[in-house]
């Protein structure tokens, strides 16, 4: 069979170098990209990628990144660098802006810069095509902010103009706001607008959105409100408002601690070295005269209002969320930019769902339709989650049907939400039917899909079926088997008391490099109780103390304490309840009193025990007396100080 010759570079150009098209051509563009990706895969498997030049590979990488396949873009760019080809800056900018995690994006950008530095000057005949510009650095700086890496941020910020001639613009300083907010520097966030204006730049609408979002993130709703109100009033002296906020925030900073932190590296980016805040505080009159004014008024748009609305939602101020919506609707009659959009309405729905007010939340959906704002999949998913959490599965199914009638295709999150609702409602068959329906529609299950189905099967006592789902998950290359999946498999076996099988799963889990956590040990504690193997509880408690003493929660500690009390391991029970009390967890003494009286009140009452047996049980008797002392039950040492270590026994008491 003759093989078709591989396409040359012009063929890839034809497939990828497409002019901007209307939105209804989006599927056509995706189809063409997938064809190009298929050709690339064909070339790669035949070892013929060398037939493509730098332009073709750059176009392919840019198309891959913009179509959501950042991993393919990353692979193509690394291949180019290994082959000594310099990628077009639009290609690596698109990839850096979309790669996750952000540390991966930073490594790619650093690799590109390193190859550009090492490249001979003769290879840089077209600087505008491969050298990084401000947009490229903005993408990399945004990745630094997402990663919380102040050192990398300062390094790139210093290099962008000094080494590469890419001057910061307003968008750069918008990213500076995000970085300062991530670093917890409220004082610097309040100074960024001042720095933008002093640098001769004009802020954009995104600048004010970034500022409002930063203060909302700090939980400083009053400052966010003052900024929005100043924007509504058309004020141009917003810097004056922010300077007061900066002065107040600076007074609360520990200077010694700040100098030692990486966040101090951001100071020179934001604060003018010639005029520090402390100097400004001693020259208030000059400061008032030198406040830079905005070049124009910046009325708040829907994005700014919605961000403030999210702050109200996070603070539980649901009524303020609704009031804000009504104000936007009134203002939108004369200012279209302030008109609520689908993000605004979805935020309102989210706030009402969080408050448990499903009737009002559903009314907002109807209100969206009346206003001509189409709801999207996210809006429906939020509503579905609310109904599922309240176990209103009939309404959830009705909304699911309405979603399809509105022409909105459900996604994997939609199905996961419905499946989780079925699990909460103890409808195991319903969860399984949804999982199968999702796959029949060509929707790839996510990690959460598999884990939710395993949870449903575990709750119904079908551990083997849960294990089959786990095995299928391991074979699925599109998902990663995470700790939650392992824990669910452990939980499935522990619920049936199959402790040994559960321990084998934990051993496999450790061998795969997945460290057990509190949920793992909590399931094992339940398995110990179900299997009635109290001796295993002692080993489990020792492992918990060694591996995660700080993370042990109430559920785990209480389960271990229950097993120890039932098995009359009072010394270990005292250790566990002491650990609970140190964490501020109040043990249920009433429960343990009842357990002791019902199960152990006749302990050590035999008058016919041999002396050897009495000697063997003496230590247990001391622990029992100490446990009774802790419970407040009558004991031999009621007036003594309680300690975990063995107390003096009744037989050893010497009044002299």
Write the layout of secondary structure elements.
Blueprint: H1 9-16, H2 26-45, H3 54-66, H4 70-82, H5 89-98, H6 102-118, H7 127-130, H8 134-147, H9 150-162, H10 170-182, H11 186-189, H12 192-198, H13 205-218, H14 221-232, H15 238-251, H16 255-260, H17 267-270, H18 277-281, H19 284-289, H20 302-314, H21 318-332, H22 342-354, H23 358-371, H24 377-389, H25 393-405, H26 412-424, H27 428-440, H28 447-459, H29 463-475, H30 483-495, H31 499-511, H32 518-531, H33 534-547, H34 554-566, H35 570-582, H36 589-600, H37 611-616, H38 618-631
Helix pairs in contact: 1-3, 3-4, 3-5, 4-5, 4-6, 5-6, 5-8, 6-8, 8-9, 8-10, 10-13, 13-14, 13-20, 14-15, 14-20, 20-21, 20-22, 21-22, 22-23, 22-24, 23-24, 24-25, 24-26, 26-27, 26-28, 27-28, 28-29, 28-30, 29-30, 30-31, 30-32, 31-32, 32-33, 32-34, 33-34, 34-35, 35-38
């Amino acid at each position: 069979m003759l093989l078709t010759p591989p396409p040359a570079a012009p063929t890839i150009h034809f497939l990828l170098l497409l002019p901007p098209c209307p939105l209804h051509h989006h599927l056509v563009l995706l189809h063409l990209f997938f064809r190009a990706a298929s050709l690339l895969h064909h070339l790669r498997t035949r070892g013929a990628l060398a037939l493509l030049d730098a332009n073709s590979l750059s176009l392919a990488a840019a198309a891959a990144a913009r179509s959501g396949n950042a991993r393919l873009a990353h692979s193509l760019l690394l291949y180019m660098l290994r082959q000594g080809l310099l990628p077009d800056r639009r290609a690596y900018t698109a990839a850096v802006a979309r790669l996750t995690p952000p540390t991966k994006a930073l490594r790619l950008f650093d690799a590109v810069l390193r190859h550009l530095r090492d490249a001979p000057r003769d290879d840089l005949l077209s600087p505008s095509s491969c050298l990084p510009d401000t947009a490229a650095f903005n993408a990399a700086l945004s990745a630094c902010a997402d990663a919380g890496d102040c050192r990398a941020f300062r390094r790139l910020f210093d290099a962008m103009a000094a080494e590469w001639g890419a001057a910061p613009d307003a968008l750069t300083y918008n990213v500076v706001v995000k970085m300062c907010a991530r670093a917890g520097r409220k004082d610097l966030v309040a100074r960024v607008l001042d720095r933008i204006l002093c640098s001769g730049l004009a802020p954009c609408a995104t600048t004010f959105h970034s500022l409002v979002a930063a203060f909302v993130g700090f939980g400083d709703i009053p400052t966010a409100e003052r900024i929005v109100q100043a924007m509504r009033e058309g004020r141009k002296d917003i810097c004056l408002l922010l300077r007061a906020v900066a002065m107040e925030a600076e007074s609360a900073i520990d200077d010694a601690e700040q100098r030692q932190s990486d966040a101090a590296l951001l100071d020179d980016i934001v604060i003018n070295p010639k005029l520090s805040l402390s100097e400004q505080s001693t020259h208030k009159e000059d400061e008032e005269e030198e406040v830079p004014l905005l070049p124009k008024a910046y009325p708040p748009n829907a994005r700014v209002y919605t961000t403030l609305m999210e702050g109200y939602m996070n603070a539980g101020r649901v009524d303020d969320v609704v009031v804000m919506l009504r104000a936007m609707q009134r203002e939108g009659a004369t200012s279209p930019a302030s008109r609520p959009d689908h993000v605004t309405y979805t935020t309102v729905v989210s706030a009402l769902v969080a408050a448990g007010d499903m009737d009002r939340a559903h009314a907002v959906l109807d209100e969206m339709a009346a206003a001509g704002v189409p709801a999207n999949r996210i809006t429906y998913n939020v509503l579905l989650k609310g109904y599922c959490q309240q176990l209103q599965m009939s309404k959830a199914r009705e909304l699911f049907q309405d979603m399809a009638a509105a022409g909105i295709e459900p996604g994997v999150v939609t199905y996961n939400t419905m499946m989780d609702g079925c699990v909460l409602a103890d409808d195991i068959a319903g969860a399984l039917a949804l999982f199968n329906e999702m796959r029949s529609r060509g929707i790839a299950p996510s990690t959460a899909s598999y884990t939710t189905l395993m949870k449903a099967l575990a709750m119904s006592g079908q551990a083997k079926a849960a294990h089959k789902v786990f095995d299928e998950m391991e074979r699925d290359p599109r998902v990663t088997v995470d700790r939650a999946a392992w824990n669910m498999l452990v939980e499935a076996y522990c619920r049936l008391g199959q402790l040994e099988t559960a321990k084998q799963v934990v051993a496999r889990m450790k061998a795969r490099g997945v460290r057990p956590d509190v949920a793992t040990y909590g399931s094992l504690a339940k398995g110990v109780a179900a299997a009635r193997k109290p001796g295993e509880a002692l080993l489990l408690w020792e492992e918990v103390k060694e591996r995660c003493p700080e993370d042990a929660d109430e559920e785990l500690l209480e389960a271990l304490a229950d097993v120890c009390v039932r098995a009359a391991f009072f010394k270990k029970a005292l250790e566990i309840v002491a650990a609970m009390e140190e964490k501020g967890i109040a043990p249920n003494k009433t429960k343990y009193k009842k357990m002791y009286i019902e199960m152990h009140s006749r302990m050590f009452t035999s008058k016919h025990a041999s002396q050897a047996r009495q000697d063997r049980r003496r230590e247990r008797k001391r622990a029992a007396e100490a446990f009774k002392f802790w419970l407040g039950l009558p004991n031999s040492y009621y007036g003594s100080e309680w300690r975990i270590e063995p107390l003096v026994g009744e037989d050893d008491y010497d009044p002299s």
